[in-house]
Description:
322 residues, mainly alpha, two-stranded antiparallel sheet, elongated
Amino acid sequence: xxxxxxxxxxxxxxxxxxxxxxxxxxxxxxxxxxxxxxxxxxxxxxxxxxxxxxxxxxxxxxxxxxxxxxxxxxxxxxxxxxxxxxxxxxxxxxxxxxxxxxxxxxxxxxxxxxxxxxxxxxxxxxxxxxxxxxxxxxxxxxxxxxxxxxxxxxxxxxxxxxxxxxxxxxxxxxxxxxxxxxxxxxxxxxxxxxxxxxxxxxxxxxxxxxxxxxxxxxxxxxxxxxxxxxxxxxxxxxxxxxxxxxxxxxxxxxxxxxxxxxxxxxxxxxxxxxxxxxxxxxxxxxxxxxxxxxxxxxxxxxxxxxxxxxxxxxxxxxxxxx
Length: 322
């Protein structure tokens, strides 16, 4: 499993204050081959001792100091890197969230509840109930209401099942299904707008046209054509965005700037006229030769269509005898 590690970690004030032992253990856990997409994984103290060279007492003390960035359940031998999912998800594809949900479902309820407290969006269609012995990890923050977390997960499961039933009956479209519900606003960590694929019926609206006209873009860009091209590109690419209108506006700005550059002669631009193609861009010798070559090709094609082999193009080119 590959993962992203920010080189600015060494500049982080929290990390800078750690001891050498704490830094070693933190980076060891962050790069551990046993890690899962949700940030939790099983590991024994003996494995940590063997692979780091530290003694078990040092590891136990270091895990306590690394809280709450690192949560440790000694009774079930599970480690949770609190921000692992957040950072890896930001640099991964849309498949990462389902992978994290699948991995999280394999852990005991105490671990799942801890992860859900930070990332409620990882609740899936599994009926999660408290374990008989629901233990807290070392470093678990005070004031966390586990019952509310379990209640939230059950409500999300219920909503998911209702939408599944409605989708089967054709009452819910893909766009409505992707819209965040009120349950997504239950905690600060879930307030970010989710990313989703571009709707297949994405088109330019009156508000979008008004924005383009206000910013002088409508006069430079064919909005209907460019929007259709924009939609087809992202449908084929399969990428996800949190705000497709903002992405469209940024694309139209780029199109308008490109059109301005061409009209100002900052790039090669050839327009068709009665004699073939003429150059509107820089008057360089290379561009002149290119324009002459285009004119010659147009004249040869015209002669062929007229059934004539008489070449009347530029004198520095031999006639086409084909």
